[in-house]
Amino acid sequence: MNAVELIKFSTCYGHKNVLKNVNVGFNSGSITAIMGPSGCGKTTLLRSINRTAEMEAGFKCEGDIRVLGQSINEVKNVSSVRRQVGMVYQTPVVLPMSIKENVLFGPRYYGAQGRLQMDAIVEDCLRKVALWDEVKDRLKQPASQLSGGQKQRLAMARVLAVEPRVLLLDEPCSSLDPASTGLIEELLMRLAEDLSIIIVTHNLFQARRIADETVFMLDGQVVEKGSTDHIFTSPRHEKTRGFISGLFG
Amino acid sequence: MRSRVAADLLLKSFFWLSGLFILLVLLAIILYLIWRGGPYISSQFIVGSPAGTPLGSEGGIFPAIKGTLWLVLLALVFSIVPGLLTAVYLSEYGSSGRLAEMISLLVQSMSGVPSIVTGLFVYALGVVTLGWGISLLAGGLALAIMVFPVIVVSSRDALLAVDENYRLVANSLGVAKSYTLRRVILPRAAAGILAGILLALGYAAGATAPIMVTAAAIAASSSGALLEPVMALPYHLYILFNEHISINQAYATALVLVILLLLINTLALWLYSLQERINSR
Amino acid sequence: MNPGLELKEKIISTIFISAAVLSSLLLLGMLLFILRESWPIWSQVGAMDFLSGTAWRPVSTPPQFGIAPMLISTMWVAGGALLIAAPLGFGCAIFLAEFAPAPLPAMLRPVLNMLTGIPSVVYGFLGAAVLIKFFELRFDLASGESLFAASLILAIMILPFITSNSEAALRSVAPEYRQAGMALGVSREYMALRVLVPLARRGMMGALVLAFGRAMGETMAVLMVAGNTLMLPFSWFNKGEPLPALIALELGSSIPGSIHYQALFAAGLVLIVMVIAVNFGVNILLRRLKSGVKQF
User: Fold this and answer.
1) CB–CB of A82 and B184 under 8 A?
2) Contact C188 B22 (CB under 8 A)
C-alpha cells in the first residue's frame, strides 16, 4: 500500500501555479527520494503533505492527498496530520531549550506524564538517532550548544518523539559535513523499517545510497518515478536523462 | 575646488557639532539639576510630607512619590493585559490579515493622541459622568489609555523578532499555537516585552497633563484610596514652580523625577540589549 | 484528547481576537464620545465660526468661542520647533550614521534615549526657570514668555525623535550606494548630503511629520513658557496659548455640561483630528513617495 498518495494535486500561491496535477504514490516502509531543479515544487510538495504549505498567504489547492489511506483534507483536526507526518527541515533548528526538553516538546503537549515515562521517551528517541551516547550526560544543557550535525539529529529525535508514520526530509544534509551526513543516512535506512520516508535531495549520490525509489520532478509536475537504479542508469524520459547527465557533467 | 573644500569643512563641522550638541544638552540638564536641586535632597525630603507656608515650601515629597507609584501601578494593571493580548494577536494570530492591519493602524494612531485629550476623555467619562471625581482611579485609567499603545507596539515587535523557524518547527509537530506561544515564543521575547513595559511605566510616571485634569491635587495623602485625589511628582513640580511656592523644592523635585526616569530608562535599555543578545544566539 | 485541545485552542484565539478588537475600538470610542460632548458647539456655534473666531470669552454674555488664536499658536509653536530641530536633528543623524568614530554612536544612542525619557514637565520647568529668566534679564523684558521660547523648548524635546528615526533611515540605505558615491572621489560629507539623504528622505520626512504631531499635542512644556494669553499672536515673540494649554488650564474650572465645557471638548476634538490627520498623512506619504532604495 502507498503510505502517501497524491491524486490530481495542484497548488498555487496567488496566481503562481506551483504544482500541476501531480499524481504520485510513495511506498510504505521504504525511502523515496525526490529530485529536480530549483523551483520545481519539491518543497511545496512536502509542505502540502504535512499541511504547512497552507500557512503561507494566498495558498490554494485542488485535488487530494492521502496519508495511509485517509485524505488529509477531510480530517477535522489539522494537527493530527502533522503528528502523523513528521518533517525535518534543511536548516537544523533546535528550540531554545535544553536537549531533553527539545525531545519532549511534542510529547508534553500530547499529554505525556510521569518522569519515568518521559525519561524513557528521551532515551529511546535519542538512541534511535544515535545521539544518546554523545549527549546522555548533558541532557539538561541548552540544545544550542550542539554542532550542526547533532542539531539535525536532535531535530529528528524531536520528530520521532511524536510517533509519526511518515517522515519528510527537505535536503536535511545540505548544510552538514560528510561525517554527519553519513550518520544521518545510516539512521534513515534503519528508520525505514518502521517508517515511510520521503527525502528531497540534490545529492544524487545520496539518492543512490539510500533511496529505494526516486521521483523526478520538473516544473511542478512529476516526470518519472521508478527504482533508483533504474532512474539513474536507464531513465525513460528525455528530461530525466537531461537532468541526470547535467548532474554528472 | 577651494570653495568645495570649504563647503565640505563647513558641512563636516556642522554634523559634528550637531552630534555633540545633543550630548551637551543632556549633560547640561542633568548637571544643572544636580547643582540647583542636589543640596535640597535629603532623606527628610524623600520621606517627609509637604510642610511650611505656603504648603510645600518646606518638608518633603513623600505623598507625591506614593501617589506616582499608585498611579503607575493602576495604569499598568489596566493596560498590561489588554496590551499584551493585542500584541500577541497582532504577531501570532492576525499576521497579514485585513483585520490585523486595521487594528495595527488604530493602535498606532492612538499613540499619537495628545495626552491632554486622553485626560479630557477620562475627565468626562470618569470624573463627571461616572461620578468618581478627581481621583486616583480616573488618573490611573487616563494613564493606562496613554501607555496602552506603547505596550502593544513594543511587545508586538519583541514577539515578531523571535526566529520564525521556531514557529515552523513547532507547527510541524502538530502542537497548538498557544502551546508554542507559552513554551517558546513568550519566554524568548520576555526581556523585550519587559523592557517595553518599563518604558511605559516611565512614560506614565512622568506624564502631567492627563493627571492634572483627572487625579492630581496640591496636597493629598495618597493613601491609595481609589476615589481620592492624589499627589504626583510631575504635578507637584508644576505647582511648586507655577504657584511660586519654592524654587529650591522645585529643583529638588525635578531632580528626583529625572533620576527616577533615568534609572527606569537605563534598566529598559539594558533589557533591550539583553533581548538582542538572546535573539542572536 | 484531540477534540478537547482543539476547543481550548479555539477559545484561546477568540480571547486574543476579542481583546485586540475591543482595545482598538477604544480610539473610536474616544472620538465619538468627545464628538458627542462637543456636539452643541458644532450645531449652535458652527465649525467655521469656532475655528476662525478670534475671541475666546467663555464667561461673557453672550459667551464667545473662537479658537483661531489657539490654532495659530499651536501651529506656530510646533512649526517653529520643527524649524529649529530639523537641521540639528538631521545633522546629528548624519553624524551618527556616517561620521562618528566607533565608540560614539553606541554612547550617543543611550543619550538620545535618556533625553526622550525626561518628562515634559521638567523641560517646561527648566525652560521657565532658566530660559525665560535669561530672556528677561538679557533683553530687559517684563516677561520672557513667548511662542519662541516654547518653540525652543519643544525643539529640544523633539530633537531625539527626529535624530533616532532619521539615523535609522540613513542606516537602512544599502551600502552599495555609499561605495558607489565614494568611488567617484567625492568627500564623505558630499556623499552624505547628495546620495544618502535623498535615498533616506522617506524615513526622514516621516520622522519630521511625526515630530510635528508630537509638538502639536504637547501640553506642559508650552503651558509653562508660552505665556498663555488669549489674544491673537502676531509674531513669534508674542505670547500665545496653544490648544493643549487651553484645555489643561480651563477644564477644571468649567462647569460640566455648560457651553464652556462643551467648547473645550470641541477644542479637544479639533486637536485630535489635527494630530490624527498628520499621522495618516505620514502613512500615505510613506507609501506614495518612492524611497528609491532599491534592493541590489
Assistant:
1) no
2) no
Considering the domain architecture, whether residues B53 and B78 belong to the same structural domain is answered as yes
- Least confident range from A130-144, A150-164, B257-271, C56-70: namely C56-70
Q: What is the pLDDT of residue C294?
A: 41
A57, A105, A109 member nearest B96 (Cβ): A57
Q: According to the model, what pLDDT value does residue A39 have? A: 81
**What one-character-per-residue DSSP string does A95-147 give?**
-SSBHHHHHHHHHHHTT--SHHHHHHHHHHHHHHTT-HHHHTT-TTSBGGGS-
DSSP C228-284: ---SPP-STTS-B--HHHHHHHHTTTSPTTSHHHHHHHHHHHHHHHHHHHHHHHHHH
The ipTM is 0.90
Q: How many domains does chain B have?
A: 2
- Closest residue to B209, CB basis, from C24, C193, C244: C244
Contact residues, chain A, for C7 at CB < 8 Å: none
Q: Which of the residues C7, C96, C125 would you substitute to probe the B interface, choosing the one with the greatest number of B C-beta atoms within 10 Å? A: C125
Domain of residue B173: give its range. Answer: 43-279
C134 touches chain B (CB under 8 A): no
pLDDT tens digit sequence for C105-122: 888 888 888 898 899 999
From chain A, which residues contact C within 8 Å (Cβ)? 76-77, 79-80, 110-111
pTM: 0.87
Q: For residues B190 and B272, state if they share a domain.
A: yes
Parts of chain B with a pLDDT under 70: 1, 96
Pairs across B and C, CB distance < 8 A: 258
Phi–psi pair at A87, nearest 5 degrees: -130, 135
